[in-house]
């Protein structure tokens, strides 16, 4: 560990919660340099939806590299890019009746968000963007401006302007439709809210605490934005690519966003790749107006094309739904058994347990790691234990992880009782 502590910046974070040096990984498991195995309920913050080193995707990548397939082309045409575009059209967009132009920005999620915000402002001629309480959209300045977390925002070191935050679904309690507030602000000339260029939303706020937007709320948001000529951006970076069951998290609500941002599990293998889906009439970029050196990494196109093989039928989608139900059932049972003030919430294979007791989620996460399970927390106070296993995890592996959580929950509660005594 001395190498990291001596030479790596203090900004490092996850390694402090999971102090192991990982060497290999396969499927739902990671192995450290001592040979100890850990079940992975983190999946690289949603990057590894198909698990570690999935064979079919790995073989496609190796074959491409071994024949000296081109690695880097900026935004020049390549065989790998063309194959991905055609496959994405055939497997994802056309079966869903969706028509989008594809923009490849820089390689990460925040690059996709920045491009989406810039384009929305360009096509509308307006600069205000509305986001939601507890949102997380990235760590660059534009993305931070539409992020709710005060700690992250403070890291910018400058004012974050031209945005407004309004309450997310459920933020004011289950009895309040927060879109009443948003719409009232839009139509009242005395509200102080300018007509925004865009609204950016996560259907499930992953980093914000696994907060789930209802389908009716999302439909109403789509109707409001359409009626007022506001670009609707859905950030599907963490909860897209099948995390909630459907490939896109907004499918269940039956809405069609104007712009969609994707990254994380898009490449299917952990290689950096981001994509902005744009309604054709909004694709008003001039050549080179938005660019970046790594806007189209050919090895990532290869793995992303191979990963789309999971979406030629509904087998994975059905499995995610089934395993999600399995997780919810056991999580609710263990919370009830301990008589805890806690809420289980999520969709598919992103599930969270929100605890009212401060520090409990972090204590459970630490106890899980001691027992060989990597699982993170979420929410502004890390009050939510967040389950993010691979979509391809086997049911017995999922059950094993849930059993570790239950054991760790009891251990964390026992430690609290000993401290109180």
From TrEMBL:
Keywords: Aminotransferase, Pyridoxal phosphate, Transferase. It is an enzyme of class 2 (transferase). Its EC number is 2.6.1.76. GO terms for molecular function: transaminase activity. It comes from the Bacteria. Pfam families: Aminotran_3. Its cofactor is pyridoxal 5'-phosphate. InterPro entries: Aminotrans_3, Aminotrans_3_PPA_site, Dat, Ectoine_EctB, PyrdxlP-dep_Trfase, PyrdxlP-dep_Trfase_major, PyrdxlP-dep_Trfase_small. Pathway: Amine and polyamine biosynthesis; ectoine biosynthesis; L-ectoine from L-aspartate 4-semialdehyde: step 1/3. NCBIfam families: dat (TIGR00709), ectoine_ectB (TIGR02407), PRK09264.1 (NF006733). PANTHER family: DIAMINOBUTYRATE--2-OXOGLUTARATE AMINOTRANSFERASE (PTHR43552), DIAMINOBUTYRATE--2-OXOGLUTARATE TRANSAMINASE (PTHR43552:SF2). Belongs to the class-III pyridoxal-phosphate-dependent aminotransferase family. This is Diaminobutyrate--2-oxoglutarate transaminase. It comes from Hydrogenophaga electricum.
